């Protein structure tokens, strides 16, 4: 693996991908719209990936000698969160991916892409089903549809011989420095208020979801960049479906908030998927020699302490 560019390297997943690369002695090139303090120490290039044309992107990759692109961008990782329109999500999650792949095709050397997708691309499944890569994706909302289209573009580019690479479909992410738009990010904000003497009022879905620590997800992305296997979608998760109430209880314990300070409101809970998500992660173990290392309680404790 040569020079690695991390697109969206200032975001939640991207910052930990950069850290994982640095731990391996590599100097990541962070590509994002705005510089942030935690990107200090890395080479940084300011580009609006949602608007940059193919020529601009190709020049950047060629000038910097980039061999590997890890695409950690996410159209919902904004202050608007999941409320963005399908057209806005398509520009970020599909059109920008096509331009990045076209730019990689112009490089005078063979390059590799690791495209970070989502487990929600598969759509809802029945309780007890462990989602494996042979399942036909049937996304049911704009976010999942556009993420699937971006993943499909990456896999098609591999099939056409434009690039080598993999798609990683991440389960729900938790851990330090969450995106404010994410469920863990919103929970963290509520528990900060409660730790100051208030109550936590929230709706808790009667659901089970698979949560993977962001540092484990970043490790998977780097291992995918280093691997020789190509042209596959690979699930990344904990392999366990956890009750949402258990997640809330773990965060309450980490924050020192007594259980009776958590009040359920009973309001409807919006969701990107069904009531059951559990990733089958055996392919990741076989192809990438990757397994999650950080349990949910430890992940949420680190999330609280990092806050």
Automatic annotation (TrEMBL):
Stored Pfam families: Epimerase
Span of domain NAD-dependent epimerase/dehydratase: 4-237
InterPro entries hit by this protein: Epimerase_deHydtase, NAD(P)-bd_dom_sf
Domain of life the protein comes from: Bacteria
Family: Belongs to the NAD(P)-dependent epimerase/dehydratase family.
Protein name: NAD(P)-dependent oxidoreductase
Species the sequence originates in: Actinomadura fulvescens
Source species taxonomy: Bacteria, Bacillati, Actinomycetota, Actinomycetes, Streptosporangiales
């Amino acid at each position: 693996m040569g020079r690695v560019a991390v697109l969206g390297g200032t975001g939640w997943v991207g910052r930990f991908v950069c850290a994982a690369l640095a731990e391996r002695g590599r100097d990541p090139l962070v590509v994002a719209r705005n510089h942030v303090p935690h990107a200090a120490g890395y080479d940084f290039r300011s580009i609006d990936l949602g608007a940059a044309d193919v020529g601009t992107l190709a020049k950047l990759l060629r000038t910097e000698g980039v061999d590997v692109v890890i695409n950690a961008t996410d159209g919902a990782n904004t202050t608007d969160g999941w409320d963005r329109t399908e057209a806005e999500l398509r520009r970020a999650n599909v059109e920008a991916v096509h331009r990045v792949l076209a730019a990689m095709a112009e490089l005078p050397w063979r390059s590799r892409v690791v495209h970070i997708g989502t487990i929600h691309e598969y759509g809802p499944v029945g309780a007890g089903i462990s989602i494996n890569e042979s399942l036909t994706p049937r996304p049911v909302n704009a976010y999942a549809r556009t993420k699937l289209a971006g993943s499909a573009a990456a896999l098609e580019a591999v099939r056409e011989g434009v690039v080598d690479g993999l798609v990683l479909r991440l389960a729900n992410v938790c851990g330090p420095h969450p995106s404010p738009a994410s469920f863990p990010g919103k929970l963290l904000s509520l528990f900060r208020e409660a730790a100051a003497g208030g109550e936590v009022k929230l709706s808790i879905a009667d659901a089970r979801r698979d949560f993977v620590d962001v540092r484990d997800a970043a490790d998977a992305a780097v291992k995918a960049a280093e691997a020789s296997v190509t042209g596959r979608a690979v699930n990344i998760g904990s392999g366990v479906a956890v009750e949402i109430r258990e997640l809330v209880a773990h965060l309450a314990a980490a924050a020192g908030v007594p259980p009776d300070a958590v009040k359920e409101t009973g309001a409807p809970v919006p969701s990107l998927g069904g009531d059951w998500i559990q990733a089958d992660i055996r392919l990741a173990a076989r192809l990438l020699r990757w397994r999650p290392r950080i349990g949910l309680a430890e992940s949420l404790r680190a999330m609280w302490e990092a806050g």
